Amino acid sequence: MFARFTEGARRAVVKAGMLALDAGRPALDADVLLLGVAEVRPFSLAAFTASAADVRARVDMGDARALLATLGIDLDAVHRRTRVGLDAPGLWSLRRSRVRPLRVTLYGPLGEIPLAMHSRKAIEVAMWRRSGPVEGEDLLWGLLADHANGAAAILRDAGVDLAALIREARLSARRAA
Question: Which InterPro entries does the protein's record reference (predicted)?
Answer without folding.
Answer: Clp_N_dom_sf
